[in-house]
């Protein structure tokens, strides 16, 4: 995707920007920002909103060069190299494929990453969270504790849960899967691994879940899984399977529950780091942050369709309830 398509994508949001605010923008150097992500979605709009809050408006004092690799992660290095050749001031990369490609394409240009699947230190992208030491900073998720919490919440909704399916993207999700596997042992449930690598494998994964008598499912994160959330929610409802995901957008697509960080907020906050870098801060010295706020979302309409009576105490703890 090129800039013109990107501008079309966020045009609705841009049209709402107050004219007075546009007129008051101070004269400054036009900055060039690279944006590398799998698919265009709500996070793309949130990113542009975050830029605007930091004082950067695409087409005025900033140019956003957006590249989306879709279902072809093997194209990420090509696209990352393209952004480097365009001499972007900062590259924003989301997800493991995009971040790895950006890190391979440049060790000089600053990179702001948003990633729910990787440990940046274990990956070699940073020497420490407090002081990354290289050209990457941003937001990365702390996986082990989250997996345990998701299983705990799903067991509250499904008290007789004893066999747990885990739907995961095996191209990038190994760390997530093993963290969830350890949490399932601690929770006393039997885990059934349901790996996928392509959207076309989802139906087979759910068929296997039915054959293995899975009673509930944890849906791990990946750009592929986020993009297919409506299909996943539909398949889960079709086979009568309660699910929980860390993507809080999942219940709005018809899934039962979600517990995780506000991903759109992280993309909005990326504008703050970009602003600091453009004003002279080094990515190597900006701490890598972990999301600090997590939300519980429950879709009671889906619960009813599944024949579940979600305990009132669990509903009361939810940050958002869809009825």
List its traits.
2 domains, 12 strands, 323 residues, Rossmann fold, alpha/beta
Q: How would you summarize the topology of this molecule?
A:
Blueprint: H1 3-9, H2 11-15, H3 19-23, E1 31-37, H4 42-53, E2 62-68, H5 76-85, E3 90-94, H6 96-105, E4 111-115, E5 136-140, H7 143-157, E6 163-169, H8 174-187, E7 190-196, H9 202-211, E8 216-219, H10 223-227, H11 229-238, E9 243-245, E10 257-261, H12 263-278, E11 294-299, H13 300-306, H14 312-317, E12 320-322
Parallel strand pairs: 1-2, 1-3, 3-4, 4-5, 6-7, 6-8, 8-9, 9-10, 11-12
Antiparallel strand pairs: 10-11
Tell me the strand percentage band: 15-25%
| CATH fold topology of the largest domain | Rossmann fold
Topology order in helix (H) and strand (E) letters: HHHEHEHEHEEHEHEHEHHEEHEHHE
CATH class of the largest domain: Alpha Beta
Terminal CA distance reads 37 Å
Outline the biggest β-sheet: 7 strands, mixed
CATH superfamily of the largest domain: Response regulator
Approximate helicity band: 40-55%
Give the number of DSSP strands. 12
Structural classification? alpha/beta
- Indicate how many domains the architecture comprises: 2
Q: Can you tell me the overall shape?
A: elongated
Number of helices: 14
Order of strands across the biggest sheet?
A: 7-6-8-9-10-11-12
Q: Which consecutive residue ranges, at least 5 long each, have pLDDT under 50?
A: 7-27
C-alpha Rg, in Å?
Answer: 20 Å
CATH architecture of the largest domain: 3-Layer(aba) Sandwich
Whole-number average pLDDT?
89
């Amino acid at each position: 995707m090129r800039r013109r398509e990107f501008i079309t994508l966020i045009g609705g949001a841009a049209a709402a920007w107050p004219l007075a605010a546009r007129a008051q923008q101070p004269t400054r150097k036009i900055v060039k920002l690279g944006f590398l992500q799998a698919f265009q979605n709500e996070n793309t709009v949130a990113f542009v909103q975050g830029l605007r809050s930091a004082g950067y408006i695409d087409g005025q004092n900033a140019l956003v060069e957006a590249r989306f690799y879709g279902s072809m992660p093997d194209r990420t290095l090509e696209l990352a190299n393209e952004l480097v050749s365009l001499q972007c001031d900062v590259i924003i990369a989301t997800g493991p494929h995009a971040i790895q490609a950006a890190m391979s394409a440049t060790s000089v240009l600053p990179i702001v990453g948003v990633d729910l699947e990787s440990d940046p230190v274990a990956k070699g992208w940073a020497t420490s969270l407090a002081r990354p030491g290289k050209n990457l900073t941003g937001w990365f998720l702390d996986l082990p504790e989250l997996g345990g919490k998701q299983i705990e919440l799903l067991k509250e909704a499904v008290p007789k849960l004893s066999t747990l399916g885990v739907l995961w993207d095996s191209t990038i999700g190994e760390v997530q899967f093993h963290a969830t596997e350890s949490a399932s042992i601690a929770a006393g449930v039997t885990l059934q691994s349901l790996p996928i690598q392509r959207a076309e494998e989802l139906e087979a994964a759910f068929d296997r879940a039915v054959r293995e008598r899975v009673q509930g499912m944890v849906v791990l994160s990946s750009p592929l899984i986020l993009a297919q959330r409506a299909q996943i929610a539909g398949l889960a409802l079709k086979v009568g399977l309660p699910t929980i995901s860390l993507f809080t957008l999942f219940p709005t697509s018809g899934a039962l529950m979600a517990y995780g960080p506000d991903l759109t907020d992280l993309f909005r906050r990326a504008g703050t780091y970009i602003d600091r870098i453009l004003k002279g801060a080094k990515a190597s010295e900006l701490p890598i942050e972990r999301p600090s706020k997590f939300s519980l979302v429950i879709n009671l309409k889906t619960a009813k369709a599944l024949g579940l009576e979600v305990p009132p105490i669990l509903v009361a703890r939810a940050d958002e309830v869809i009825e």
